[in-house]
Amino acid sequence: MRAGSLAVAYLADVPDGPILARNTAGVLASLRTPEPGQLYAHHLDRPAWMDEMVTNHSLHRALSTADLQAAHGAA
Q1: Total domains, the chain
Q2: Using one digit for the tens of pLDDT, what is the confidence trace for 23-49?
Q3: 7 in a structural domain
Q4: What is the distance between the alpha carbons of residues 59 and 50, in angstroms, rounded to a whole number?
């Protein structure tokens, strides 16, 4: 990230990720109906996924404007 001067990356919670895939035309689409509660359960797992990303990849969370400014200054 430093070599490319990337100071900030945004990771989004995509709760419908488990049912998304490319269709036969190569377009990202919902390819099936989720089981009841499946997408909510996936959404609830996302904070743990984020914690793992931060821990295993030497990342830092930006929770405020000051955090973003500090990341930009450190790049």
Answers
A1: 1
A2: 999 999 999 999 999 999 999 998 898
A3: no
A4: 10
Q: Which of 37, 21, 41 is nearest to 29 (CA)?
A: 21
pLDDT on residue 26: 95
pTM attached to this predicted model: 0.62
Q: Quick: pLDDT tens for 2-23.
A: 677 777 777 778 889 999 999 9
All residues at 6 or more sequence positions from 15 whose CB lies less than 8 Å from its CB, including other chains? 39, 40, 42, 43, 46
51 inside domain: yes
In sequence order, what DSSP letters do the residues of 18-69 get, joined into one string?
GGEEE-TTS-EEE-SPPPTTHHHHHHHHHHHHHHHHHHHTT-----SHHHHH
Residues 9, 62: Cα–Cα separation, whole Å: 10
What range does the domain containing 32 cover?
A: 17-74
Kindly report the number of other CB atoms within 10 A of residue 20's CB atom: 12
